[in-house]
């Protein structure tokens, strides 16, 4: 991912990555 030192623009990126990882975990773990 792109790390920008200009401001808190990296926060949404971390949120997106966390959501993607959570989605992958949900797909791999059947309920």
Task: Write a concise keyword list for the protein shown above.
31 residues; mainly alpha; 0% strand
Number of domains: 1
Q: Kindly, what is the distance between the CA atoms of the first and last residues, rounded to a whole number of angstroms? A: 30 Å
The percent range for strand residues is: under 5%
The strand count comes to 0
Please report the number of helical segments: 1
Helical percentage: 55-70%
Low-confidence stretches: none
User: Using only CA atoms, what is the Rg?
Assistant: 13 Å
How do the helices and strands follow one another from N- to C-terminus? H
Q: Based on CA inertia axes, which overall geometry fits? A: rod-shaped
Biggest pleated sheet: none
Polypeptide structure, described:
By secondary structure, the protein is mostly helical. The protein has one domain (1-30). The protein is built from one helix and no strands. The protein is rod-shaped and about 40 Å long. The termini are far apart. InterPro entries: ARPC1, WD40/YVTN_repeat-like_dom_sf. Its main location: cytoplasm. GO terms for molecular function: actin filament binding.
Q: What is shown here, in short?
A:
Helix content is 61%, strand content 0%. The chain has one helix at residues 10-28.
Itemize the secondary structure elements and their pairings:
Elements: H1 10-28
